[in-house]
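Weekly sync notes, structure subgroup
Attendees: PM, AL, DS (notes)

Item 1: joint prediction request from the bench team. They want all two components modeled as one assembly rather than separately. Inputs as received:
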Amino acid sequence: MPTIVVEVMPKAELLDPQGKAVAGALARLGKSEFTDVRIGKRFELTVDGPITDATRATVQQIADDILSNAVIEDVVAIHYPEGSEA
Amino acid sequence: MTTRIGVITFPGSLDDRDAQRAVRMAGAEPVALWHGDHDLQGVDAVILPGGFSYGDYLRAGAIAAVSPIMTELKDAAGKGMPILGICNGFQMLVEAHLLPGGLIRNAHQQFIRRDQLLTVENADTAWTHQFSKGQEITIPLKNADGGYIADAETLARVEGEGLVTFRYAGVNPNGSLDDIAGLTNPAGNVVGLMPHPEHAIEPGFGPDTPVAMRSGVDGLAFFTSAVQALQAV
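Output from the run, pasted for the record:
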């Protein structure tokens, strides 16, 4: 069954406390070439049946309204499986 | 007629019983409401309690904000019903877009539990009119995701319209922008804050004060404010 991937990241201009904590750990381990770490989310949506234009519209709406909060996050990418291009 | 104030219980709510007790001590009748119902049971006001609804999955308050009962709650909010969101309830109100901005993980990544000094910034809301502007109160704070954020435009509007209802005083415990601890909507009927007024209503169980340990009852005025506002209608 086809799987659609939605990627959400905290807005670039806002503090990402989790990313900052990981960046601090990397610095302590001597991995000083990495100046910043940001942590986002990856959602995998499995669809029962073919991916239609209606499916794509629904995925966009879910991504914008539920999977992300536009106040603090951006939907940075939605990946559809190969061969499902409209 | 007795004022009836509903408290909605979600999967993972912790402080719903405490909120019900605060309602009773303020002289109103608490009504237990259920997240899965499309029914506010004719209550006069609603409290969204603290806790970790749905384990804070997705984002704190996000899944609760799309619960069945939120349809009726949003409708009631638009009609002026007093609604108070405490901690997780505040997170639900921002996720439901009833209050502006968002709440993220505390800046230092740690859960906090402390008796928090607050400054009352807006004493014209349904839940704060028994305070006075500039008054300092002590209310317990306990959360992991209490960092208030908003983009520059939203923040300017929140400040310009006087929507900031409480600010952290003395110390900013979680990195909140402009020390924001609580907000109201422009109409003043919807209020949300991270600290827990329902834990400061009864001598012996509240925060410490200079007078005596656990004697702080600054939270009671939230609930008596709402009762008074409703009985004046």
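Discussion: Residues 4-231 of chain B form a domain with the Rossmann fold fold (CATH 3.40.50.880).
Action: AL to compare against the crosslinking data before next sync.
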